[in-house]
Amino acid sequence: MATVIELPIATYESVVEPDWCPGCGDFGVLRALEIAAGKLGIRPKDLVVVSGIGCSSNLPGFIHTYGVHSLHGRAVAVATGAKLANHDLKVVITGGDGDGYGIGIGHFIHAMRRNLDLTYIVMNNQIYGLTTGQASPTTMKEVRTKSTPLGNVELPINPIALALVSGATYISRGFSGENKHLADLIAGAIAHKGFSLVDVFSPCVTYNKVNTYDYFRKRIYKLEADADYDVTNMELALERAFEWGEHIPLGVFYRDEQPTYEDREAALRNGPLAHQPLGLSKETFDELMEEFM
Amino acid sequence: MINRREVTVGIGGAAGDGLDKTGDTIAKTCGRLGLYLCAYNSYQSIIRGGHIWLRVRVSEQKVYSHGDHLNLLIALNQDSIERHAREVGPGGAIIYNSDKLKCDPVLIGDNVLPVPLPVAELTKPFGRLPPIMQNTVAMGAMLYLLGLEFEMAAEVLADTFKHKGEAVVEQNVKVARAGYDYAQDKLVPLGYEWNFTRTRRPFITGNEAFALGAVAAGCKFYSAYPMTPASSILHWMAAHGAKCGVVVKQCEDELAVANIAIGAGYAGVRAMCATSGGGFALMTEAIGMAGMIEAPVVIIEVQRGGPSTGIPTKTEQADLNQVFGASQGDYPRVIIAPTDTTDCYYSAVEAHNLAEKYQLPVTIISDLLLSEHPETIEADALRHDVPIERGEIISDWPEEKGQFKRYAFTRSGISPRALPGTEGAMYVAGTDDHDEEGVLISDVFTNSAMRRKVQEKRMRKLDAVLKELTPPQLEGPPDAEVTLVGWGSTKGVIREAVALLAEQGIRVNHLQIKYLYPFQAKEVSEILRQAKRTICVECNYTGQFARHLRAETGFSVGDLILKYDGEPFEPHHIAEQVQAILAGKPRSTDVTLEEAREMAYHYIRVHLADKVRPAKIEQVDGDGYGEPLWLVEMVGRDSGEKCGELRIGVETGSSYSWEPVKIFSAEVGSAS
User: Fold this and answer.
1) With CB atoms 3.0 to 4.6 Å apart as the test, which of B181, B267, B305, B558 could cross-link to B316 if both were Cys?
2) What pLDDT does residue B671 have?
3) Are residues B246 and B332 in the same domain?
């Protein structure tokens, strides 16, 4: 194995200061991503951070790497294209719960099913923040928001359970209040070959007065602290995925080694598409034409 | 008097009857003999049943549409005899399996030869055969009647069934031979005289040409969601992706299709996707993103009849407004409407070059007719060594040069690209508007002057695009009485209509528009201002292109020839309407006698369980209905006896009433 040369966090420092609200959970996620990238020694030129739209989707602008700040709900799709075009790149998707579990949930599920070598970090604050506080797909039942003044009546999406049944091969949950732990989860996710999910409790200090830092601090525990927990056991993972209330688990729920989509794609056998010569040889062209005669 | 060097064969049957294979064999046989073909398949969105109607026009000369005539009918079911027998012109023939089908002499025109084939008897030596082998017997008889070489057809059959083994090949050849020998024994050829040059030429559809052209131009990424009539691009790409080094991705929806393609384009690969109108609607937000982040991508929109699900297997040119209207905001893009099959190939090449050089989305707008009909093109029409122009891409960005300006405000508006992986040139491609470095100017650094300059920079790219496009050309005599204006797929049929009108003594010239955006307003205006009388020909209801022309040039065409029934124009449709316009007769939208028959067939299929067929049809006064009526007399399919009358409004097309004759009412029901 090649020696990893760790890079300092400053390597990824953008000229643009984040404009998140003071205390926003997303600061911790950005910091953890920088730590993780540094730890893995990923050079900024080889990292592409792709986001959708929302407060958390502004993240690519605050990190000095390649990035696409794409459309609402489409980050996973854009990242899929970028990864298939050049699978030498590390592609990390960042966004929020509305972006990924609401408008973009179709792409999320299908990307997991494909086991593309992508890392998806969802800054889950259980609210629409940028649009000033409407219910999101992960808003808990009965929570009052601007769009649910009488209390939310819909069951929230369970991203961990969804990922488990959709074929993701690294499924984890972190908390932006636990920076070091989160950085480890992200580093594990990026290093993992296959689709990795890092669902992060990233509190919205402005619009979500229910799921606050305190709310989580009182409830979270770490799966790795449980010596009996087996990250390769799907049934166990599903059981823990539904744990909510008094105790909420953090850490890696499930991990599996499976061939990635890129491994299975015949057209990628000669290396990244972006590095291949363009056009057809006369011989290949003539062979193709022969089929029309 | 028949043209002895051109024939149109029609094959009618149900989906699942194997028409396409038979059509392919006929086409390849004629093609390898050195004849030109142009075919069109009128099909339906079902896998089995329904009515499929394939026409193959064969000629010694290049033909540009499936034409106006029918010379030989191969009917695979009773429906096809009843609906198409009367279309066969003098000197023609109708081939059918007489074990199962009847050809009533009243259905046949003068000097048309019925060819009943005793298929069971002819195929007896080969044991039990699948029903579709009746097609092969019919094809054998056809070869003899049309004076085509049996040996060539045998060679094509051998190639087609090679993968199924020697026994299958032999059986097919022998069955075809049985049909050929029977015809030789009983009949005289129809009198065609061919000069077989045996020049090998490609027989190819527009969709295949798009795929091939894209790959020749270096396209390495293709994404799609299945949708008629774009799916055959996906099929070709999927079948050849590994060989050509193309990643072919079927996606969960067209939102993914477009966004994935744009992601690939951003990361440095020539990427393409295709769909039809409904799928394109889902792609539109992403197309605006490609304009904003300046990522190259090629999108093919193959139109079918709309709106909504519309007529999924029928042709139309009614998505022009949608393609223009794609995405919110103003952004640079190119829209190309290829005009023929060869042009599909080169338009795909040009689209990829424009997309990369100018870093913008290029939409190619095609339609079912152009994309799906196969035709013979010249042997050397498609070249493998097409130009590949990628525009400026930097290979590194040394630190001393400072922050890389991905969106540098240059005079041309084109800013050099850096692909992810390039040392030192990290930037964010933002869908929020941004400054030269890609830093957003939407939130923290809001700046209206910056917004103005970045918008001007992007839009300026179109000035250079416009200069690069080949100018439109007027075809035909400059002093013609009438100028026909078309766009996209209608070039071939308008060209043949012009020739038909010339035979009728009317001098017509023709302007076909390929580049829809940016629009060559100056060149087009100059041509049209000199025209004596202009008529725009379009396959839609509102004349969408004529409106675009007016918006871009201020020029209003004199008249419109529009068609929106799902079937493509045939030369005579255009010629007849030009004549009518010149005679000052407004176009009638009344139901014609032939249309009344088709509507009666629809009624029969829906309400009368295919037990009857329309016989005599006459127009009568519609007292009490407020419009004249077509009175359609229905007769029993087997008995031939009158079993009821259907009344159809001549103006509205409403099927007002069905009155069964009493004794048949139990058999056919009394639906109204």
Assistant:
1) B305
2) 45
3) yes
Q: Spell out the alpha helix ranges (H) of B294-402.
A: 320-325, 341-358, 368-372
Amino acid at A267: A
CB contacts, 8 Å: B251 with chain A: 77, 110
Question: Picking from A170-174, B44-48, B492-496, B525-529, which range would have the lowest pLDDT averaged per residue?
Answer: B44-48
A44, A85, A284 member nearest B221 (Cβ): A85
- Percent of chain B residues past pLDDT 70, beyond the cut: 97
CATH number at residue B46: 3.40.920.10
Boundary of a domain, candidates B468, B499, B529 = B468
Mutate to test the interface with A, among B298, B431, B432, B439 (most CBs of A within 10 A): B431
Kind of pairing, strands B334-336 and B247-250?
unpaired
* Window 88-147 of A, Cβ < 8 Å to B: 88-89, 106-107, 109-110
Q: Are B519 and B545 in contact (CB under 8 A)?
A: no
Residues B246 and B326 in one domain: yes
ipTM of the shown complex: 0.98
- pLDDT score at A269: 94
Residue B195 lies in a domain: no
Q: Are residues B53 and B115 in the same domain?
A: yes
Instruction: Please name the residue of chain A whose CA is at the shortest distance from the CA of residue B35.
Output: A293
**Which chain A residues are within 8 Å of B266, Cβ to Cβ?**
68, 78, 81-82, 85
Count Cβ atoms below 10 Å from residue A150 Cβ, excluding itself.
Answer: 7
> What is the model's pTM?
0.96
Q: Give the pLDDT mean for B426-439.
A: 97
Residue B520 is assigned to a structural domain of this protein: yes
Would you state the structure tokens that stand for residue B485, as one six-digit string? 């204006």
Give A245 to chain B, closest Cα distance, Å: 35
Alpha carbons B42 and B115: distance in angstroms, whole number: 24
Chain centre distance of CA A258: 19
Measured between beta carbons, the chain A residues lying within 8 angstroms of B444 are: 16, 19
| CA pair distance B510, B519, nearest whole angstrom | 18
DSSP assignment of A144-181, as one string? -BTTBTT---SPPP-HHHHHHHHT-SEEEEEETTSHHH
Give the count of domains, chain B: 5
Per-residue pLDDT of chain A (293 residues; tens, 9 = 90+): 568 899 999 999 999 999 999 999 999 999 999 999 999 999 999 999 999 999 999 999 999 999 999 999 999 999 999 999 999 999 999 999 999 999 999 999 999 999 999 999 999 999 999 999 999 999 999 999 999 999 999 999 999 999 999 999 999 999 999 999 999 999 999 999 999 999 999 999 999 999 999 999 999 999 999 999 999 999 999 999 999 999 999 999 999 999 999 999 999 999 999 999 999 999 999 999 999 98
Q: Is A77 in Cβ contact with B256 (below 8 Å)?
A: yes
Same domain as B63, residue B27: yes
Q: State which CATH number among 3.40.190.10, 3.30.530.20, 3.40.50.300, 3.40.50.970 fits the domain covering A21-290.
A: 3.40.50.970
Contacting A residues, span 24-63, partner chain B, CB-CB under 8 Å: 44-46, 48, 50, 53, 58, 60-61
CA-based nearest residue in chain B for residue A269: B245
Please enumerate in sequence order all residues whose Cβ is within 8 A of that of B658, keeping only pairs 6 or more positions apart, or say none: B603, B607, B608, B644, B645, B646, B647, B670, B671, B672
- Where does a domain end: B558, B582, B606? B582
Asked whether residue B235 is assigned to any structural domain, the reply reads yes
**Judgement on whether residues B39 and B117 belong to the same structural domain of the protein:** yes
Contact with chain B for residue A285, Cβ under 8 A: yes
Domain extent, residue B419, equals 392-468
pLDDT of residue B48: 65
Which CATH number belongs to the domain containing residue B223 in this structure? 3.40.50.970
pLDDT digits (tens, 9 = 90+) for B36-93: 999 999 887 666 667 899 999 999 999 999 999 999 999 999 889 988 999 999 999 9
Query: How far, in Å, CA of B354 to CA of A273, rounded?
Result: 20
